[in-house]
Description:
Elements (H helix, E strand, L loop, with lengths): L6 H23 L5 H16 L22 H10 L21 H15 L3
Helix pairs in contact: 2-4, 3-4
Amino acid sequence: MCRSTVSRxxxxxxxxxxxxxxxxxADCREGPGDWRAGGAIYHRTCVACHGADGRGxxxxxxxxxxxxxxxxxxxxxxxxxxxxxxxxxxxxMPPKGGNPDLTADDxxxxxxYLHHAFGCG
Length: 121
Ligand code: HEC
């Protein structure tokens, strides 16, 4: 359907894709957590490395707007809570972004903010 050169079919295709995109974004953005509370945490604890736009403020920090946020919340929460460093990467993600006071709820809220601000992958 999407390869059709007939303009009406092509328009229907664009609409279908737009609807599918919206549905996926809504699923992701309506996850648990309070994104406003998470935003305050992000701008206090994470922004120095990840940048206000999520694209990474230092070498070795991944662009959160291009694919990373498609990972499951369970995986993201584990990486944020415990920190990680993938083989060969120049810089580690520190546990809790370097703030040991972050609670499990804070982590859920900050993931809600990441989805809200940077999308769903
Ligand atoms: C000292 C710099 C630094 C700080 C502070 C920091 N990060 Fe990271 N973060 C990194 C680096 C570096 C990576 C990539 C590590 C790798 O790929 O090996 C990363 C990766 C991530 C990822 C990708 C996870 C994945 O599974 O690929 C997420 C999400 C993330 N950080 C969220 C956060 C949040 C939320 C905070 C604040 C609570 C935070 N980071 C604070 C440096 C930082």
